[in-house]
Amino acid sequence: MKIAAEDQIKKKIKQAQDAHKAADERQSHDKKRTSGKERPVFQPALPQNHKPAAPGEYGRPVDVPKEYQQLSEELFQRNHFNQWVSDRISLQRTLPDPRPEMCKSMTYPVDLPSTSVVIVFYNEAWSTLMRTVHSVLDRSPPDLLHEVILVDDSSDELHQPLEEYVRQLDKVRLHRNSQREGLIRARLRGLEQTSAPIVTFLDAHCEVTIGWLEPLLNRIHQDRTTVVCPEIDSIDLNNFAYKYGPSGVLRGTFNWDLSFKWSIAPTSERLRRTSATDPMRSPTMAGGLFAIDREYFLELGTYDRGLEIWGAENMELSFKVWQCGGKLEIIPCSHVGHVFREVQPYDTSVSLHSIANKNYQRVAEVWMDDYKKFFYQRHPYLTDQSFGDISENLKLRQRLKCRSFRWYLQNVFTDVILPNETAIATGKVRNPISNMCLDTFGRTSNTFLGLSPCNIQRDTMLFAYTSRKEISWNDACLDASFIMPGFKIQMAECHRIGGNQKWLHQKKDVIKHVHSGLCIDRGTDLNPVILPCNGSLTQVWTFDYYTVN
Ligand code: LR7
Ligand code: MN
Prior knowledge:
Bound molecules: ligand LR7, manganese (II) ion
Number of strands: 27
Shape: globular
CATH architecture of the domain at 423-546: Trefoil
């Protein structure tokens, strides 16, 4: 998750928390609306041999003793989470109940449709994978869980005992891909083998919590064109603590490079919802954790099969669902934990970065109409890259009579901030004499701007110089609020009023801070600074692309 404007988010979370508490109290006085045949939420039994003091129980963090630190660090490199810790924790550990109070007394129709759960995995650690499976088996009402389909996307290690282990688990089946398909087509392989009316997808390092399933299925039962996501909590990648915040605060949006982003729901959405248990409409989904009516998914053409390995299928499905008449929601009464990794551990022949970018490009081309120009502004070097054949996708969009991207922005992602219509220059910002380039390192909120060698390929090095005379990276702008020579430049949320974020620049020339008249200098370490303009080559900068010369 982006750490942008963290303080602001925390403040807003607090406000929303208070509002929800008040709503909860109001509602609990209301009469509960139950229609004859209703079921309470399924109460899982404690596992046999449950040891309350064992490591990780109740979602507690697990520390690594000194003597195992080195081993645990080695294992960390394999999965990019602390496998040593995961291996210490029971596959059936207990968890806290992260739901809003009101969810606990909810009841659901007895005749909810059942679901198949599909979990795809590639080189996942055994303990995290199996903890995902056991949490599903233990915490789903037996009559609503039809089956669990595991799809091994041709992992390097076979987890040999997996077949045997799975055989003794009721309802669980294993399919092994003979070659690596990537998570998108692997999910479709899983889908082919499901037979329940609803399909629920999970990543292979999740833990579901009490009551997670009923509200998801119920919502689809009410309206089959609703695609639903649980609230996603965090399983700490270092100590496997189960962490959660308030529900119903964040929803999914995107950056213009099409990466997923959590955003505070706008006031309109908060007002539309009258209870803490009400579903929240979400412009996008994170991707890995959702339930969908099986037939409806097929009607939507499932995923674009041209998407490789990892990335963009979440945007594709989000745009498709909204634009083609469906809805996407986050259900506050359903909570699932996920191990958020900081990097993807996959070895691929070409960089994962370029694979994902091609995926994003396909999605932009099919769904975003003219707005794809904003995507290309963030990825100027993709303009002349091929993205394969998308004619089938375009036909599908026509056949389903899907609405425009403009409609989606006006009706769904209503709080979107469009980048400035005119970017004067885009791409990396290079200081030719040193061949160092500006780099945000993904940090956007009151942190220093950095520098990296220009030969590195990273989205965090792609800026736009706009007609507003801002130099921006997503919603963050170069900012010089301490205007003393030698001060480092900061990244701060773009405030759109010029001032300390206004810069003058021409091709192969200085970048001059309008307010102070100082120039960006590459400085002497890895942070550019502002200095009096002195004609030095350390103050010359050039963007990759200029729209006007
Ligand atoms: O080649 C592969 N084959 C696979 O089967 C690569 C991956 N996989 C499996 C992998 O083992 C895992 O179970 O696919 C699953 C997802 O891969 P992750 O865990 O590396 O993805 P992620 O959690 O980093 O990324 C999010 O975005 C992805 C974009 O393609 C997918 O949609 C992920 O499912 C999605 N994860 C979530 O939504 C969890 C919440 C994260 C947030 C925000
Ligand atoms: Mn994941």
